[in-house]
Amino acid sequence: MNLYRNLTIKQKQIVWAWTFLAVPVVFYSVIRFYPTATAILISFQDWNLLGARAWAGFDNYMKLWNDPVFWKVFRNTFAYLLIGTPVSLVLSFVIAYHLDKVRFLHGFMRMMYFLPFMTSAVAMAWVWRWFYQAVPIGLFNNILASFGIAQIEFLNSTTNALPAVLAPAVWAGLGFQVIIFMAGIRAIPTSYYEAARIDGVGWWVVLTQITLPLLRPTIVFIVVFSSIGFLRIFDHVFNMTTNNPGGPLNATKPLVLMIYDTAFNSFNMGYAAAQTVVLFTILMIVSLIQLRLLRSN
Amino acid sequence: MSTTDIIRPTATGLMAKQSKPATRNMGQILRWLALFGGGVLMVMPIAYMISTSLKWPHEVYNVNLIPVEPTLDNYLYVLEDGRFYMWFINSGIIAIVTTISNLLFDSLVGYTLCKFKFPGRTIVFIAILSTLMIPTEMLVIPWYLMSQSFGWLDSYWGIMFPGLMTGFGTFLMKQFFETVPDDFIEAARIDGLNELQIWWTVAMPLVKPALAALAIFVFLGNWTAFLWPLIVTNSTEMYTIPVGLSGFGDEADVAWELIMTGAAISTIPTLIVFLIFQRFIIRGVVMAGLKG
């Protein structure tokens, strides 16, 4: 205690700071950084959990490159991203743009759009899975049937299954994006709109020349956030296709599901680790490209 | 000349005002109706989940939203089974403990990085920020191996340990502590409070809205977490609600009214919390989204 008393104020601050940080620093080192390094290390090893770990060089990566399932999964993962992100961006902007102008029951309307965000992906995947069943079980096909429209194969079709799995993911994230967009729209100073009104400019010009350019940071945030979400899609796919995860014929399998299968069903840890490194790289590249686009103007 | 020049724009303005209100009102009404229709569609899956959980098996395949003879039979069946009760408690304990841990540690670290000057500050900040770039999926294999060698598999600790602190929460709290004036902290120091007391009694009360936002995100995230709990648990007693529900769905196979009941049990608590604290939660989400 005497030792502490003799310290200067600056030195005392240093002692306090490192006391506060001691546990967190250990946590981040052991639970975040060490595992990251381990994952990269294992990706260069051949290891099936029970046997010995053997150095394998780039074998896992070569195997991945030559694996047709990986390329199928790669295409699926980007299909989730390239369909999901624009669709949810446009939908959420259109909803937010109009919702912002609505006064009557505004709070109630906002609540309806936000509610799905509070649900659990697993629960909702099962609800949508039920919707997609054939007559006489599934809601969608029952509604189609009552109008005399031909049945649609959703989860059993290799072409329809991926969009069908994506729909609840878009649905669940929409409310969050609407709320963020509305906050962005509210943050635009009204003086811009007043100036536009005095100049007598039409709504389309106001939208494209004022609102959208000023929303750029919001748009970039939403694009980055939802892209990362779609690239990491798992809960919806796994639960909507539990009888044949990622099926039919790997038509819905995303990278995270392939990682899960390889690591925890086939116990091929080295191969799975290589896949996680690929996922990490993809996420990094996609985020960096998008952040660069933000900075460019 | 000058009078007509002044009058002319006013006149056109008046004409415009006379012709526009009718169409503008129609436009407003159409916009409202379209948005309302969209909102109803958004709520539909949740409504059908709850409605089906209240239906008798023979009525499940009817598309009517309001059950003809509502029943709580499915809830009784599912709860008597006992497992959902267990999973509910597990998820609750895990979400609550993780939330408390994040509130304490993320704010302590955020505060330290914001208000203290010490060697290594920038490095620690960049290191923690960089963890935001590491996806959970990359860490699950090493976490699993770690849990295996320390005997953490299939335990509360095993499910919880990866999420006890987050870079996101730390960053969020740091952003909010920036708004606390340094003078307050200096004044407390002169009053003779030690640094721990200053953090807890002076700084923390000033960032309550941020703490609430963080609590919502961490709780919701852990209540609905699926991948890691699926990997780390292997006995029914240790499942969380999402993991249990996933297995239950497969097992119940075509008993959709039971699956919907399970789904409703896992969703209703968060929906109730949301309906009570709606305004507050939406504000929190915006704050966390824009600052974090």
TrEMBL record, chain B:
The keyword Protein biosynthesis does not apply. It is a multi-pass membrane protein. InterPro entries: MetI-like, MetI-like_sf. The chain crosses the membrane at residues 29-50, 84-111, 123-144, 156-177, 254-277. The keyword Thylakoid does not apply. Residues 88-277 form the ABC transmembrane type-1 domain. Pfam families: BPD_transp_1. This is Carbohydrate ABC transporter permease. It comes from Parasedimentitalea marina. The lineage of its organism: Bacteria, Pseudomonadati, Pseudomonadota, Alphaproteobacteria, Rhodobacterales.
